[in-house]
Design a protein that fits this description.
Layout (H helix, E strand, L loop, with lengths): L1 H14 L19 H21 L30 H11 L6
Length: 102
């Protein structure tokens, strides 16, 4: 992602005949280290559009964000690859189960 951002910034600066930063924020990676953290990250992505609506004074929309990849989960061929990492495949489900061990 960082490489993509750098390439895009260089190309945009060249096209606009300018120098300096193009993107306000730099790419920042954080490795998710627990099922709880992974579940919170997924919830953040899926509920982000509701947060923006409330922040803008609009009512919170229902359902999944239509621009989120989860909304396209029934599309054929699949647009999103099934998770392979244990944390997303098993850990999040274990964290979400009622009566789970702390």
């Amino acid at each position: 992602m960082k490489g993509l951002q750098v390439s895009m910034a260089r190309a945009l600066n060249k096209v606009m005949n300018r120098r300096g930063p193009v993107f306000m924020h730099r790419y920042y990676a954080h490795v998710l280290s627990s099922p709880r953290e992974a579940a919170n990250a997924i919830r953040y992505v899926l509920d982000d559009w509701k947060i923006h609506a409330l922040r803008d004074g609009r009512p919170a929309p229902a359902g999944i964000d239509p621009w989120c990849s989860t909304a396209w989960s029934t599309h054929a061929p699949a647009l999103v690859h099934e998770p392979e990492w244990w944390m997303l495949k098993v850990g999040v489900e274990r964290h979400a189960r009622p009566g789970r061990a702390p």
